[in-house]
């Protein structure tokens, strides 16, 4: 990425370029900081994957209208409740149904792929939707080990190989392998005038430190590793070295959030996501259960403790309570941007929750 990539993009251009700086974003309405969405195209009980993907498309269109800055989707495999297994395919579709919303991967699990393949996929996305695409990268498989082996087929590359894979991917994107490198004569095509900004994602200190050393923006998964948020962000900032991408650190955190008419209703909705997470943690992932199923489930004492602990890290309640909770979290962590995510059952409830949050947080006057 060149220094030109750091300049704000012009608004409302016919080719669909983003309205603001691709990394730093901009504050919409009266919001105190950029607010974004992480969506997994969740599939709930009683719904099909096709219906889930349609709902995600409608949510992206609404998110653009409401003033959310980014809309990211994430790579997961072997999970019936998640339809976003292939981010590049879904992002191409979402780009065709939006005009200015930044789209990205939150993230692509790089160890599952050859770096050249990801460079080609996101080069194609950049050509389709210039100036609107983020390439967020993770080093976990996003699935169980058996599925990871089935995805890779060749010699396994794990998390420890991530820095080398990242360097190779960056060279493919920039077309600047050094002379004598085995891949120096290879090109990732198509390639447009620019290329997607790379973000590193993580839930521990490894990616935080690597992002800092490389001068890249960093996204931390607060929504499933809340205890590590502040230490990881501190490590990122202390490790940061200015680069052609950033002069100073830029940190985003993912936050589980649910808004409804009142706290009781929001908690009831959130419990469906909590039960889905419980089942995932014990190795039996499934569709997102209904709130009624989550209420009736016979939790053991250990399971009840897990659910209570998980819910404690969800910002939930009436819209104003959620907005206040998000702002308190932003101030406590010093995050530059918040990315809310909600895996609750029911597309209407999820869509409404994001709309209520947008209005209460100051992104949009009406939803």
From TrEMBL:
<dbReference type="InterPro" id="IPR011251">
    <property type="entry name" value="Luciferase-like_dom"/>
</dbReference>
<dbReference type="Pfam" id="PF00296">
    <property type="entry name" value="Bac_luciferase"/>
</dbReference>
<comment type="similarity">
    <text>To bacterial alkanal monooxygenase alpha and beta chains.</text>
</comment>
<feature type="domain" description="Luciferase-like">
    <location>
        <begin position="36"/>
        <end position="335"/>
    </location>
</feature>
<protein>
    <submittedName>
        <fullName>Luciferase family oxidoreductase group 1</fullName>
    </submittedName>
</protein>
<dbReference type="InterPro" id="IPR036661">
    <property type="entry name" value="Luciferase-like_sf"/>
</dbReference>
<dbReference type="GO" id="GO:0016705">
    <property type="term" value="F:oxidoreductase activity, acting on paired donors, with incorporation or reduction of molecular oxygen"/>
</dbReference>
<dbReference type="InterPro" id="IPR050766">
    <property type="entry name" value="Bact_Lucif_Oxidored"/>
</dbReference>
<feature type="region of interest" description="Disordered">
    <location>
        <begin position="1"/>
        <end position="25"/>
    </location>
</feature>
<dbReference type="GO" id="GO:0005829">
    <property type="term" value="C:cytosol"/>
</dbReference>
<dbReference type="InterPro" id="IPR019949">
    <property type="entry name" value="CmoO-like"/>
</dbReference>
